[in-house]
Amino acid sequence: MSSTTTSSSSAALPRQRIRELLPTVFLGRYPTGPKNSLTDIPGVLVSTQSIRDSPKYPNAAANSINTGVTVILPRKEWFNKACFAGIFRFNGSGEMTGSHWIEETGLLHSPIVITGSFGVGSAYNGIYEHAIREHSDENGKANWFLLPVVAETFDGHLHDVTKFVVTPEHIVKGIDEASSEAVKEGNTGGGTGMLAHWFKGGTGSSSRVVPAADDRSYTVAALVQANYGAMRDFKIAGAPIGRLIFEEQERKIKENPNDPELLAQAKLLFKIKEANEKKDGSIIIILSTDAPLTPLQLQRLAKRASVGLSKVGGWGANQSGDVFLAFSTANDGLDDQTEANDIWKPKAVKVDMVEDRNINALFEASADAVEEAILNAVFMAERTVGHNGAVDALDLGKVKELMVKYL
């Protein structure tokens, strides 16, 4: 937290990703992709929009709107060409629409939108509005089937959720503007108003490149919307940094019981602690790979996101919504809706797949990418003032100071 943990060294430190701040940190044995981002997977497109005002509420109280939208396109032709996908529910106090159909078929035929809990309805409608605009027939009719995929975490501490400022237009814009650029992190997209381990949280991403047979390689990448956890559990590459920071704050408050600044910080910390103990946030994790994996293998890949989460200090509280989805961009001829098929005549298609006995490196890389994506979300997030008060960013100067003996 800012004044209780800010050192003179941290004042000049800009927000930066973990590898920039700690170049020698060990986050797994596989190298990152060139962007160290979900968009290292060829064909995957992402956009983020932060929403801090609304034409519906021109006189909204200052700092009351802090939400946003993240849009992921599994491929540009998402409407006509599906991806294999799999879902894992680590803890189910959260929402991911369309999940039943993915579990039924193993196919992802939708953008993935991540937003705040109260924005799910508008996001769902927005995917439909984009599809209607682009894929209606000559009479303007929607003669097709689509179940949108929308996931959420709750941003009600920093954002006035009663305003319903996310609109379908945000989603249409997000789909239109999705690009292959590195994912913007921290207070961006759906992560704009989120907390993680009582620090400011948000959006983070990372990738890993895994050597494969025949001189090939495959990439596994993660995008997270982190909004979970307690400070005492927060770890960086195994180091108990959250507990050390929390204990230092407690010690300073005890030593200076009449310091008004410290007392103000203590009240803020208590308010965040109380809110998190009533409902311990959530995390949405999206994994993507260009390795040819089947839906069952992708379910197994999605499970490994829980390993990366645990490395940072997440353990799946009762009221945490921890829902993970993995998809593969290989096998691009799946369920091609541009073809005229007789649905009553079974048609075989060829599918490539990785052998199960050779899948270990992809599992390991997935856990490592998730770990780093969460850390990037927290490292890049900035102090934010919301309608229930401020949430401070992780003090990077303090992190650098504490991590010396662990590197």
Features:
alpha+beta; four-stranded mixed β-sheet; 11 helices; single chain; 407 residues; 30% helix; six-stranded mixed β-sheet; globular
Brief description of this entry?
This protein is 30% helix and 20% strand. It has helices at residues 2-5, 18-21, 99-105, 120-135, 168-177, 241-255, 260-278, 295-303, 305-312, 360-380, 396-403; strands at residues 45-51, 67-73, 83-92, 107-108, 112-116, 149-153, 195-196, 199-200, 202-211, 217-227, 282-289, 321-328, 384-386, 389-391.
How would you portray this structure in words?
With 407 residues, the chain is an alpha+beta fold. It has eleven helices and 14 strands. β9 and β10 form a beta hairpin.
Topology (elements, then pairings):
Blueprint: H1 2-5, H2 18-21, E1 45-51, E2 67-73, E3 83-92, H3 99-105, E4 107-108, E5 112-116, H4 120-135, E6 149-153, H5 168-177, E7 195-196, E8 199-200, E9 202-211, E10 217-227, H6 241-255, H7 260-278, E11 282-289, H8 295-303, H9 305-312, E12 321-328, H10 360-380, E13 384-386, E14 389-391, H11 396-403
Parallel strand pairs: 5-6, 11-12
Antiparallel strand pairs: 1-2, 2-5, 3-4, 3-12, 7-8, 9-10, 10-11, 13-14
Helix pairs in contact: 4-5, 9-10
